Amino acid sequence: MDTLKRMIETLSVTGNEEKLAELIISEITPYVDSVETDVMGNVIAYKKGKNSKKLMLSAHMDEIGFMVTQIDKDGFIHFGKVGGLYPLHIASCPVIFKNGTRGVLMYESKVETKDLGLDNFYIDIGAANKEEAEKYVQPGDVAGTYGSVFDCGDHRMAGKSMDDKIACYIEMMAIKRMEGSPAYDTYFVFSTQEEVGLRGATTAAYRVEPDYAIALDVTGVGDELGQKLPNAVKLGSGAAVKVRDASIVCSHKMVDHLVDLAKEKQIPYQLEVLMYGGTDAGAIHLTKGGVVTGGISIPCRYIHSPVEMVDKRDVEACINLLLAALYTELK
Q1: pLDDT band at residue 1, thresholds of 50, 70 and 90?
Q2: What residues act catalytically?
Q3: CATH topology of domain 2-63+160-327
Q4: pTM score, two decimals?
Q5: DSSP 101
Q6: 101: closest CA among 81, 73, 121, 71?
Q7: How far apart are CA 270 and CA 26, in angstroms?
Q8: Where are the beta strands (DSSP E) in the chain?
Q9: Given a cut of 90, is residue 113 above it in pLDDT?
Q10: pLDDT greater than 90 at residue 220
Q11: Overall CATH class of domain 65-145
Q12: Tens digit of each residue's pLDDT (9 = 90 or more) over 178-200
């Protein structure tokens, strides 16, 4: 999992995905027919298939983070959120800026924990005053939580930005494991700006004009302790075949196709019915006259926290299901 570790440690806050894009391009170029980067920063790799119909896969490169809005006279850095941030998830976290500057996230001690909002947080980079802070950071600079990935128990691992670098890793591994031509002309998209509105996938799908599409992303699970919105998905129970989320009701044709493949290849799977959230599938399926779209999701605990947890067996199941889909035409 060294490649995944390098991906997670490569900062890619929304709108600043270029370093991760470079890493991905260096890994996949020997295995595809062409790779390009578009205006939005999406990486689009192409592999010719046996059928001229087009299949688009999409996993997003961006991670949630922080953007500097102002620096006060005491050198404390105030920020706006980039994507979905929750106060309790970020309290006391170490952070790293795009330029390598390190700091810590802290909140105003006068505020009771139950009353915390993002406006009560600031970043401390150790500067004594505004002038010193401005040597390192300027308004508009971005930062993310600082960390890596580590093993948990027999089969699991946790770390920052599994959403959605674990899906980028799965897409990359599928590319590397392919043998021969896929069923369709296939476009492997590593998209940008998903966390602020599926923006990269929107333009990539318009450009590719796919007939079929599969979005790869993490999904919420039902096996956290005392959770507010439980569902049937569990860590270690296999790849999650998306039925719906708040952004899409998936094509029955694609759902049935993925389920049939999982059964045929004896790949562990489960059905994902998510009543919140969304993925690149939400944008892709609405492209032009519509696209037959589904999703392969990676069960994940503690989404949008610095310790997102996945199961390695689910990761392998997702790779195998994606490979099966690449080689098999829809009925």
Answers
A1: confident
A2: 194
A3: Aminopeptidase (3.40.630)
A4: 0.97
A5: -
A6: 71
A7: 33
A8: 34-37, 43-47, 51-60, 65-71, 77-82, 94-97, 102-107, 121-124, 142-145, 149-152, 156-159, 184-191, 212-219, 239-245, 248-249, 269-273, 292-299, 308-311
A9: no
A10: yes
A11: mainly beta
A12: 999 999 999 999 999 999 999 99
